[in-house]
Design the sequence.
């Protein structure tokens, strides 16, 4: 069954649409007119959609309230499909962001490794400088003691 309609923007959009806004198509692909039961009985006055070629009909028949329920379900389905599409798009953006963050992390890991090597080299240089100072201090003290020994003798 093919249907088309315009939404009015509120939560009861299908129920509040006038019958002129709704177009229900029969199996011939023609607009199925909205009719009303005219015969006395339990369905008297109830509205229905039927084939536009009545009495030589294609067999299409739907109560009007069923059509509205179907439209409500179709609208809910469309809203859910839209929500799913939006979430899939957001998922794609987040996956791209994760990929960029992983690349950035790898680059930062390389920088940290380089800085760690540089830090080790600086420490080794400092230890060597301390050792050099100790050697110079040791030499200076030994010269002082040597001078004192020579002067005292």
Sequence:
């Amino acid at each position: 069954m093919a249907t088309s309609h315009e939404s009015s923007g509120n939560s009861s959009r299908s129920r509040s649409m006038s019958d002129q806004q709704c177009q229900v198509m029969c199996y011939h692909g023609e607009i199925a007119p909205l009719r009303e039961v005219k015969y006395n009985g339990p369905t008297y006055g109830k509205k229905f959609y039927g084939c536009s070629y009545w009495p030589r009909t294609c067999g299409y028949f739907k109560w009007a309230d069923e059509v509205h329920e179907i439209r409500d379900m179709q609208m809910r389905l469309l809203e859910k499909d839209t929500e799913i599409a939006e979430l899939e798009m957001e998922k794609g953006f987040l996956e791209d962001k994760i990929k960029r963050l992983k690349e950035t992390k790898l680059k930062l890991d390389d920088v940290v490794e380089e800085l760690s090597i540089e830090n080790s080299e600086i420490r080794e240089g400092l230890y060597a400088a301390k050792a050099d100072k100790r050697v110079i201090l040791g030499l200076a003290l030994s010269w002082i003691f040597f001078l004192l020994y020579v002067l005292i003798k």
In short: Residues 1-21 have pLDDT under 50 and may be disordered.
